[in-house]
Amino acid sequence: MGTVTLDGIRKEFDNGRIVAVDDLSLDVEDGEFVTVVGPSGCGKSTTLRMVAGLEQPTSGRILIDGDDVTDVHARKRDVAMVFQNYALYPHKTVRQNMAFGLRMSTDLPRAEREELVRETAEMMGIEDLLDDKPGELSGGQKQRVALGRAIVREPDVFLFDEPLSNLDAKLRTTMRTEIQRLQNELGITSIYVTHDQEEAMTMGDRIVILKDGELQQTGAPTDVYENPANRFVGGFVGSPSMNFVDVRAAVTRDEVRLSDGTGRFEYRLPAADYPSISDGDALTFGVRPEDVFTAEPASGIETAVEVVEPVGSDNYLYLDLGDDFIARVDSDVEPDPGDVIYVGFDESDVHLFDARSGGSLAFERGEPTPAPSA
Predict the structure, then answer these.
(1) Whole-angstrom Cα distance, residue 218 to residue 5?
(2) Distance from C-alpha of 255 to C-alpha of 273, rounded to nearest angstrom
């Protein structure tokens, strides 16, 4: 079993003047691959270091396999960590680097350690590099060695701290696939920290989103993408980012009319579907660029095209409906800058957020679903 439980952990620095992680609770199931994502300074790496035993929580508990390890030394926790900077010993060979953790944490005889290292190096495709030193290796080879050093220990939990951020884009994609394949084969519980939301979305069974040390949302990547808990999550997950327009609601018996007050943006929704919206409410309208489509004048919103950005199979149209309002359309839709076009969005693709708290107005049976504040 390789379960991990974070029970209300908090981490303060500078005598409490800096709160890096605030009351974070999370359960990671055995064999689950969880990605933790958020902007710089959100507390994701600090959280990982607390699980590893490299940082001590100010309060709260950390359990691995149901055992409280909050005060247990890092060496005595059955976890293996892969770092951003590889953390290889430059004076040791690949073989010695991979065997070091085994030698420090087990009492296996040397012959068995060497056999485990050889088998793992073969799995990682680096068996020909065992006698080389880190200075002779490429970035991708160093990362494979760092992964192999973690795998050879057969830990209960893998911890990854932005392990691919030093690699170029093509190699990053290759290594991302490699890590997923290895985790599927080995079935080891994994917590993977990254600042790259695309990496988090494509790799994780479940995604955890942090902001300012606080948990914003956790769930399957598709669920988080389709049902963001608040404006921050809606804007952070997805590329290009979700479009936002600040609006006021005018409510009649039949409809909710949302307007930005300038005449540029207006959208109508059935009042029966949004019973909690009151006349005059300040809201934020959200729609993803891929959910914006070109429409006929009779049914669409009139807007001017500011910039056309070709990106291969798609074109990004920057529209004057709001700040950086983007429509992601097929490449055969090619208006010129300054052209007037009409766009629309399906009601099912619209997201509404409370303008003050940022919480989503997600409805089920006509009742709003509670959401964490932004």
Answers:
(1) 14
(2) 9
